[in-house]
Amino acid sequence: MAQESKPPESGSPTDAPAETAPRDQASAATPSSVSADAEKDAQVEAAKARVAAAKLEAQKTAAPGAPKPPVKKKDEGPKPVDASNHPLFKRLKDKCGYAVIEATEFLGQLSIRVERERIVEVCETLKSDTEKPFNYLSDLTCVHYPDNRDAPFEVVYNLYSISKNERVRLKVATASADGVESVTSVWPSADWPEREVYDLFGVVFRNHPDLRRILLPPDWEGHPLRKDYPLEFVENRWTENHLPEFTEVQKEQLEQRRAYGLEILSMPQEREVRELFKSGKEVMPKDK
Q1: pLDDT per position as a tens digit, 164-181
Q2: How far from 201 is each of 59, 130, 136, 152, 226, CA to CA, in Å?
Q3: Domain 81-206 is of which CATH architecture?
Q4: What are the boundaries of each domain within the chain?
Q5: Rounded to two decimals, what is the model's pTM?
């Protein structure tokens, strides 16, 4: 009984767990990771405080800035100027009188407006001019101005002097029904350009040796380069006679594809597209 009540000696093995337990609890209560996070947070807060103080100091000491200069307007581009004193216009005026109306110059390019009924006379005069013979018709085209109801079309002749290396532009205002005299008697090379203007603009050239369409079919209706001509494909008598018929479903598909901007239907291959629809094939592959 006396041996059971005797306390254990200090060096016995049973004292080891009791002494090491408080040490483990202390080390778990203060880990190194907690102290590192706290130190980082303190550094971040200190940096924020320094930035805020620097901004506040800059606002107090900064002087008001100079006002911004006003935005400079863009310089207007060059404009046509009167060329009544141009030597060629004066010489042409002396020879043809009221056949020449006015002259303008733009970036060194001379343009002369001519009376519609006397265009052949003016062209012959320029071609046979001894000082500057304009013996080459480099281009013949047309411009449509729908707002000019009396003469909405302007036929343009670009002439070139090979020996003097100079150019002049003639302009003739006319209506489609009135037309203009053909200059094939002066320059035979005007044959096809005049046919092209007739085909795409509808301007008639009187006394032309073979005035007929050159790009579009002979029975085509309308003139595509007029500004009042529709931009998209239209149904007309020619399409009814020469292209397969569209069903209502195919017409709806065509409109939907155009609405999505599929450019294949904005190109001239309308007949191929119709054949694709007719055979049941897909025009464009489906998105997968």
Answers
A1: 999 999 999 999 888 999
A2: 69, 35, 24, 11, 6
A3: 2-Layer Sandwich (3.30)
A4: 81-206, 237-278
A5: 0.61
